[in-house]
């Protein structure tokens, strides 16, 4: 991934070819599970009708295969054991292929870690002919100054979120309109380079071609936020196993994304350490009896910890539900307080609606929405992903928000920087060529 602009263009071309052939796979690489969905496309809309909006280039698709497996070799949303992650991905892909009765060669993947950072860019150009064309859109995108994202960072998303033509702002697609000066606002999301390279290398080791990459926070927001929430301003909090993703949408575009390196697995770990039980038992206790708000009845509700150590006194221990809640609540509060700090840093309080939607497998803890409303101080609701055609009932829960959003991302891609023909010296991946040209022009 040394030349980001060209590699992203190559992946977009590969994805389109796979969609034209009719089948492509979706891969959600998480810290607690790896999910794979196989999509069959019935056909796309004719070329040239799509815009630059969030639902550009619509096409019909159906889920024909689905499989999940326990994640191995992934921590904090990033691969840390290549062979284990490879085996887990192979297991999920083979299960989905078996259900779909078709072989897939191309996958679109999403991941939640890699320390995402958001930047707001702006650029403006004067129009020579008066009417805006695709070349003018490419020029105004190239006019957006690339920020110093730091060494060993890659640009994952570079999306135009607003166009202004002369005094008219809020344009979704300026092509074909007449004016004298075109301006653009763009959201750029950078991630750690090594995390992207490790994921790409792991997918290649599975004999698969990578046809696209996306942030889990972005695709979870696409599937969990309703149209009005995306339009008026809302935040999606995707509480996964190893990381909690955060994305903010307004005018149907993502304008901010971040990640907290805490998730449901940390709650499970706290239960395991606090009650001195195996992780599998702690996960069962969290799922069946967990919560974050204790009542008077919880002191009297006793839970058997169980066990097969052979020590009767140890295996017959019980604990009250109030004690279990007392272990879980501090960690959940820590996660929500970290999310609130990032929302405050992003200026979320200035949005018109300020709706917050909780999704992800970690959002199913009873009482979480009330606790989140108390800590975040906003309107909070629990979100589930949109229903897509052919999706199995087992894959409709909040834990599959990223996977379903990735299906929508594949079928309805938003145009990004690399979808336009930009001059090589304006490539966003490397600023060295621009520096050389500047020296030639000025010395």
UniProtKB/TrEMBL annotation:
<comment type="similarity">
    <text>Belongs to the FtsA/MreB family.</text>
</comment>
<dbReference type="Pfam" id="PF02491">
    <property type="entry name" value="SHS2_FTSA"/>
</dbReference>
<dbReference type="GO" id="GO:0032153">
    <property type="term" value="C:cell division site"/>
</dbReference>
<dbReference type="GO" id="GO:0009898">
    <property type="term" value="C:cytoplasmic side of plasma membrane"/>
</dbReference>
<keyword id="KW-0132">Cell division</keyword>
<dbReference type="InterPro" id="IPR020823">
    <property type="entry name" value="Cell_div_FtsA"/>
</dbReference>
<dbReference type="InterPro" id="IPR050696">
    <property type="entry name" value="FtsA/MreB"/>
</dbReference>
<comment type="subunit">
    <text>Self-interacts. Interacts with FtsZ.</text>
</comment>
<dbReference type="Pfam" id="PF14450">
    <property type="entry name" value="FtsA"/>
</dbReference>
<dbReference type="InterPro" id="IPR003494">
    <property type="entry name" value="SHS2_FtsA"/>
</dbReference>
<dbReference type="GO" id="GO:0043093">
    <property type="term" value="P:FtsZ-dependent cytokinesis"/>
</dbReference>
<keyword id="KW-0131">Cell cycle</keyword>
<comment type="function">
    <text>Cell division protein that is involved in the assembly of the Z ring. May serve as a membrane anchor for the Z ring.</text>
</comment>
<keyword id="KW-1003">Cell membrane</keyword>
<keyword id="KW-0472">Membrane</keyword>
<protein>
    <recommendedName>
        <fullName>Cell division protein FtsA</fullName>
    </recommendedName>
</protein>
<dbReference type="InterPro" id="IPR043129">
    <property type="entry name" value="ATPase_NBD"/>
</dbReference>
<feature type="domain" description="SHS2">
    <location>
        <begin position="24"/>
        <end position="224"/>
    </location>
</feature>
């Amino acid at each position: 991934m040394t030349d980001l602009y060209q590699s992203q263009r190559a992946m977009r071309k590969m994805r389109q070819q796979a969609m034209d052939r009719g089948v492509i796979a979706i891969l959600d690489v998480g810290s607690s599970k790896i999910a794979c969905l196989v999509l069959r496309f019935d056909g796309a809309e004719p070329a040239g009708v799509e815009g630059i909006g969030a639902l550009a280039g619509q096409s019909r698709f159906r889920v024909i295969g689905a499989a999940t497996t326990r994640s191995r070799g992934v921590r904090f949303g990033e691969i840390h054991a290549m062979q284990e992650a490879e085996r887990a991905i192979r297991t999920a892909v083979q299960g989905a292929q078996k259900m779909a009765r078709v072989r897939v060669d191309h996958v679109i993947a999403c991941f939640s870690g890699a320390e995402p950072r958001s930047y707001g860019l702006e650029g403006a150009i004067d129009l020579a002919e008066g009417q805006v064309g695709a070349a003018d859109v490419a020029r105004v995108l190239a006019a957006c100054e690339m920020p110093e994202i730091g060494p060993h960072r890659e640009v994952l998303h570079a999306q135009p979120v607003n166009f202004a033509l002369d005094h008219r702002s809020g344009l979704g697609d300026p092509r074909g309109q007449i004016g004298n000066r075109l301006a653009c606002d763009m959201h750029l999301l950078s991630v750690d380079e090594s995390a992207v390279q490790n994921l790409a290398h792991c997918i290649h080791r599975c004999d698969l071609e990578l046809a696209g990459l996306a942030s889990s926070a972005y695709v979870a927001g696409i599937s969990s936020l309703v149209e009005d929430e995306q339009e008026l301003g809302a935040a999606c909090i995707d509480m996964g196993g190893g990381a909690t993703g955060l994305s903010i949408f307004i005018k149907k575009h993502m304008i901010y994304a971040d990640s907290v390196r805490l998730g449901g697995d940390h709650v499970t770990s706290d239960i395991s350490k606090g009650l001195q039980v195996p992780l599998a038992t702690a996960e069962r206790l969290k799922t069946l009896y967990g919560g974050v708000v204790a009542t008077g009845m919880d002191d009297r509700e006793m839970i058997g910890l169980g066990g097969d150590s052979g020590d009767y006194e140890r295996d017959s221990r019980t604990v009250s539900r109030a004690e279990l809640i007392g272990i879980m609540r501090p960690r959940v509060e820590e996660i929500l307080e970290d999310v609130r700090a990032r929302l405050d840093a992003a200026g979320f309080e200035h949005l018109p609606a300020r709706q917050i939607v909780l999704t992800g497998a970690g959002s199913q803890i009873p009482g979480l929405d009330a606790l989140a409303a108390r800590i975040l101080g906003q309107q909070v609701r629990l979100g589930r992903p949109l229903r897509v055609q052919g999706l199995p009932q087992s894959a409709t829960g909040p834990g599959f928000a990223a996977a379903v959003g990735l299906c929508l991302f594949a079928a309805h891609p938003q145009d990004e920087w690399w979808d336009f023909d930009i001059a090589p010296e304006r490539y966003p991946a490397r600023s060295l060529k621009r520096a050389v040209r500047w020296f030639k022009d000025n010395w």
